[in-house]
Amino acid sequence: MAYVYRMIETDIFRALADPTRRAVFERLAGGEMSVGALKAKFAVSQPAISQHLAALKAAGLVVERREGRFAYYRLAPEGLAPLASWVERYRAFWPEKIEKLKDVLKGMDP
Amino acid sequence: MAYVYRMIETDIFRALADPTRRAVFERLAGGEMSVGALKAKFAVSQPAISQHLAALKAAGLVVERREGRFAYYRLAPEGLAPLASWVERYRAFWPEKIEKLKDVLKGMDP
DNA sequence: GATAAACATAAGCCATGACTTATGCGATTC
DNA sequence: GAATCGCATAAGTCATGGCTTATGTTTATC
């Protein structure tokens, strides 16, 4: 009976822990993309992209849309909800000034 | 010149991706703890705990306080700021109703 | 000052992960 | 309908990760 419940947070953290895979996720923030178009943006093989997408999909972070022989992937941002929730839980421990730091960091990112 | 800049997000995601290590972090939310006290809460060896703490510390998620031969660790919740910032960036993509889902999830966690 | 306690570090083991090339499979094109 | 395209899956390789059992190292105890 051990380990009956998989922790979705683990899947999400793991999916986003790899820099390439996280970059794929971030790319998709620009809009829906086919696997081939996505592959063109990275220095890895097509199977590698497919494998990353499968991991992101399993974590609930992207969704697939089939159209003929093409597969289009787009963000499933609601998949981040458990992650946001997890972080939120520890926001209670933050000193007030951290809120400002967070805003600064937000501004820093492209 | 490649890979000069380490991504702090990667360290944070990686640190929290392991269930045991994340559990250690969550434990520390209950308050400062010595390594020995922490070890008593988990079914792993003392070196394993020390290694997890080292990873969390390297990611900026906990801080160490030395007192004689004891080492006390406590949360550095501000270390979550880059993570919160990262999530925040994609909150823009969320549908409105997700905010409610997040609250539900928050209520579910112990 | 020798012993023990609390913790960190070293070294080794085994599983997993991220990548590759090779292959399969449905959809299109000729 | 044979060849090609777009993608997924299989299989293999190499590096990394998390764990273990030693082995320090520093501080307290006798």
Characteristic key phrases:
DNA-binding transcription factor activity (chains A, B), 6 helices, 110 residues, homodimer, Arc Repressor Mutant, subunit A, WH_DNA-bd_sf (chains A, B), DNA-binding
CATH superfamily of chain A: Winged helix-like DNA-binding domain superfamily/Winged helix DNA-binding domain
Low-pLDDT runs of chain A? none
Largest sheet of chain A: 3 strands, antiparallel
Rounded to an integer in angstroms, the radius of gyration calculated over CA atoms of chain A is: 16 Å
Tally of DSSP helical segments of chain A: 6
Q: Strand arrangement, largest sheet of chain A?
A: 1-3-2
Mean pLDDT rating of chain A: 87
Assembly state here? homodimer
Name the biggest interface.
A-B, 34 and 34 residues
Head-to-tail CA distance between termini of chain A: 46 Å
**The CATH topology of chain A is what?**
Arc Repressor Mutant, subunit A
Strand content of chain A: 5-15%
- Categorize the overall geometry of chain A: elongated
Can you tell me the CATH architecture of chain A?
Answer: Orthogonal Bundle
Organism (chains A, B): Kaistia hirudinis
Protein name (chains A, B): DNA-binding transcriptional ArsR family regulator
Keywords (chains A, B): DNA-binding, Transcription, Transcription regulation
Pfam families (chains A, B): HTH_20
